[in-house]
Inverse folding.
């Protein structure tokens, strides 16, 4: 999928960090992405992919949750432009405080996204 869509190295790393796998993004991968935020071109690609992931819903709730996790990490360790862009797009993060998804077993998976978004905007 990465080759077909001609994703850049930065986009592939973000997609990997925000995958639907049941485990979180590795700290080494998040560190690599944070370092890439200092490159102007990579920064745009990273943020664009993160905003795309934040717009996922339903069964792709992990994309959203992991994008918030990555964003939290990048705000703390990446380029200051990450925090700046988050401030400019705070509404996109705030709306996730109402994120809803109940899985097949009746478990509320949306709570993870709701809590993480609350934490990010506070």
């Amino acid at each position: 999928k990465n080759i077909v869509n001609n994703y850049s190295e930065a986009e592939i790393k973000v997609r990997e960090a925000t995958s639907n796998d049941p485990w979180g993004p590795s700290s080494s991968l998040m560190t690599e992405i944070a370092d890439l935020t200092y490159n102007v071109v990579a920064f745009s690609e990273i943020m664009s992919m993160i905003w795309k992931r934040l717009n996922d819903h339903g069964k792709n709730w992990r994309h959203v949750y992991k994008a918030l996790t990555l964003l939290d990490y990048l705000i703390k360790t990446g380029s200051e432009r990450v925090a700046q862009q988050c401030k400019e797009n705070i509404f996109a993060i705030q709306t996730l405080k109402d994120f809803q998804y109940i899985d097949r077993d009746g478990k509320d998976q949306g709570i993870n996204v709701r809590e993480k978004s609350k934490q990010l905007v506070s």
Observations:
- The chain has a mean pLDDT of 95.
- The chain is about 65% helix and 0% strand.
- The longest helix spans residues 61-77.
